[in-house]
Here is the input.
Amino acid sequence: MYQGITCIIRDHDLRLVLVAALICGLGSFSTVTLITRAQALPARAAISWLIAAAAVFGCSIWTLHFIAMLAFMRQMPIAYDVRTTVASIAIAVGGVLIAFLVWRLIALRLVGVVLGGAILGLAIAGMHYTGVSAMRLPGHLAFSHEGVALSIACGLALAMLALGRARHAGTLLRQIEVSFWLGLSVFTLHFIGMAALRVVPGPALPTGGNVLGSGILALAVAAVSAVLLAISLAATLVERHLAERTMQEFTRMRVLNDLAHEVMMILRHGIVLEVNSAGARLFGMPVQEIVGMPIERLFAKNSVPVLLRDQMDDVEENWPEEMAITTATGKQVAVEFSSRRIEFQGAGATAIALRDLSERKRNEARIEHLAHHDRLTDLPGRFLLRERLGRAMQAAVQDSTSVAVLHLNLDRFKPINDVVGHAAGDAVLIEVGQRLKQALRATDTLARIGGDEFAIVLTHAEMPGRVSTFANRLLGTLDRPILFDGAHISIGASIGVAMYPGDGDDAEALLRAAAAAVDQAKDAALGSVRFFEASTNDATLERRQLQQELRDASQRGELELVYQPVVNCHTGDVPSFEALLRWRHPQSGLISPGAFIPLAEESGAISQIGHWTIDAACAAAASWPVPRGVAVNVSPIQFRTSDVPAIVAAALARTGLDPARLEIEITEGVFIDDAARAVTILSSLRSMGIRLALDDFGTGYSALSYLRLFRFDKIKIDQSFVPDLGHREEATTIVKAIIALGHNLGLTVTVEGVETEDQLAIIRTQGADLVQGYLLGRPAAMDRFSEDAIAGMQAALFTPPKGA
Ligand code: C2E
Ligand code: CA
Ligand code: CA
Here is the structure.
């Protein structure tokens, strides 16, 4: 090195050396610009840039060499052999090209750097010593071997260093640094090489033919320098243009990216180059902070190996897969990851798209939750209850403790639902769920297992006394009325308790026992708590069994209709019969509707049963020898849940019954939930020519307003007033008032449940139109009402028509 420096100062024209250094520096910088771009491009695209780089750098070396030669020993007449001089430039460009190709294309980076650097060093050395050997001067050249070796070693080492540092030449500073090392490798090799050279004077060489004089060489050098400058300038312009385009591409990409909900990122060599604002939101950091980060830092630990795999250059595109990212706060978020190789800023890069899966995860959890929870109260349903009860039982076995299962059934819930409406029913259920929940420990399970049924699993329930106290406290929480729509709704409940171990071996059996116990509780007294007792279980089991059997009672032909005559108060004529339903149970015999209609309404079997009734009543009436009317009762639940007009129309069509002979009896319950809809249905029945009666009139509060909603043909005064007639003034007054009201509205008025002649007499004087009751005829099979039998009844109760 020292030799090189003294050589420069002592033997050279320093101004020319400076020019040489400048040209070499400029060339080196252009070279670095070019190879940096080549490095980022896919291999095939990189080659043309490497050729340009080799041309620039080869020429730079050559120019430095020959300008330095001109600066060297200016006094001495030196000529240059043309062929060798041309060969030297070829060696420079060719060698450099090979070096750059090796450096860029060998996948193992270290090997590429060492091998490429070595070839580059050798190319510089080859150019230098070929150039030296082109000199023709008086005397000959003597070399110091150590000096030559040193020059080559320095050139090689600096070339390797330059190529090593060029691997990550993203910033301008780094590019300048690499240019420096590159230029220095040429510079040191040249001047240490020159210092190792000594001219031994001798006879002047013959001049002529194939040699260049210094003047011509100077011209040649100037020409090559000009070419070099031109290439450099062109390369810089192209690079600038590309960079500008990239910038636009960049902006466009960011604008598009920022519009996207998905997170987009661009990486190169595992470093984030770009990220959109969705990414900033996901990671919880500003864009500037994410840019420049190694990608691993943004992902959860176990996602990193997969990520690195995808960073390998041969992966063109990968299928979306699930991974986790880490946000600024350290939270892990599930994402769907997909990546693809793209060209970005004129170079290869990896584009990554991330989709935040937390929403989907939440939805999945929500669906899972919905599947296992009651939608109204958000309490666990039967499935979870069974699972938790099973677990509690296992734990109880292990710890020798007990589990209590409470089955809570609301009292008076059905009327709330039917009369006040479903919205009120829902509000009650929600409130009850909340109150119960508040009364429980976190370890207890509360589930909704049916319309108005809740189940509670209590662990560590060793003492039945405690369980009983607790159950009563639960009932206490329901004492307070529930406020709905400005009204106070009172609700109560009954609780049945089953204990484990003792009342069942599995969850299902325990739940059944608790259900049986609550039925017992209800039978005993509403609002009570009852522990399961195996012996009294039968009645309740039977009740549940009945409900099962009721489902297909109509198909099994177990339903029958009986008929009760409807009698004209004044003449004793029988204009119609009311059809009343009976269930002939194979074991239990005849069951009256009061016992099974509520069960059918509860289980939904009422639709099927009601359908059967309408069909059967129409068919029967159509076959009667005397064409009297037939009245059919329709439950509010059936009215609401099935298409009654369609069913009626079909029955009329099939049986050929005159619609005017059919009367439908409904109670005010049909108006409760949706009065407008009820009126529509009633109107369509009316338009078919059917008569409509409002049954059980006088029991409800709003019966009068319902009369205004729809113009019925008939009202039937509830039988509960009848026993008091003649005993209590009030009852007589009410009945009288209702009759007057009905007549005012142009309605026919029927009084039901007339059992005595006194009652009949009073009703007659009050002006009722029709009567029904045991006095006039008990509900019975139709064959009991022959014309003779009817005439007998008339003869007994009514003054025979004059002249008969
Ligand atoms: P409802 O429509 O008010 O029917 C009159 C009830 O009073 C009948 O009871 C009848 O047997 C009974 N009854 C008639 N005369 C007297 C009497 O003088 N004294 C007393 N104490 N009772 C009398 P039943 O047949 O047990 O029906 C009870 C209720 O079941 C009916 O009350 C009606 O609401 C319902 N029901 C009956 N058949 C059907 C039906 O086919 N469909 C629907 N949805 N409900 C029905
Ligand atoms: Ca009736
Ligand atoms: Ca009635």
Notes: The pocket of calcium ion (ligand 2) is lined by residues 578, 633, 665, 695 (CB under 6 Å).
